[in-house]
Amino acid sequence: xxxxxxxxxxxxxxxxxxxxxVLSEVDCVAHTLDDVLSYRRESQELSPMADEFLxxxxxxxxxxxxxxxxxxxxxxxxxxxSHMSVIDRNLLRMAIxxxxxxxxxxxxxxxxxxxELAKVFGSESSPRFVNGVLGSVMETSLSKEPSxxxxxxxxxx
Length: 157
Prior knowledge:
Distance between the termini: 40 Å
Number of domains: 1
CATH class: Mainly Alpha
CATH superfamily: NusB-like
Strand content: under 5%
Order of helices and strands: HHHHHHHHEE
Mean pLDDT: 86
Oligomer: single chain
Structural class: mainly alpha
CATH topology: N-utilizing Substance Protein B Homolog, Chain A
Number of strands: 2
Number of helices: 8
């Protein structure tokens, strides 16, 4: 039983790492999402819940990438999104997506998870940068009532 638990990737953090890897590959190499997800599923055994989270996160980020990049640009104006490292920009996209477009993750958890992934996958300065941008997003979103952040003209989160 313990071996089965270890083989199947069930933790949200390990699934977020897989989301980051999928998004980074789609971003860098321009492989299709379907191809990258298929390869990920073949190479990493995922529980049904982890697979659902992987699919929802990757599709959600990619479907909302322009809105997410606008938010990143607003909170990191000195750093054009296209000049950020692939890891940093995809960590920011993931966390901002979770913070503004999903309701199942508290913002502080999304920030913590992004910072922890930045420590593993990013540069030496990535954790501080990611934490700073996401902290600003959270502060601004919490000060806006009743909706947190307006993503587009008709979508409020």
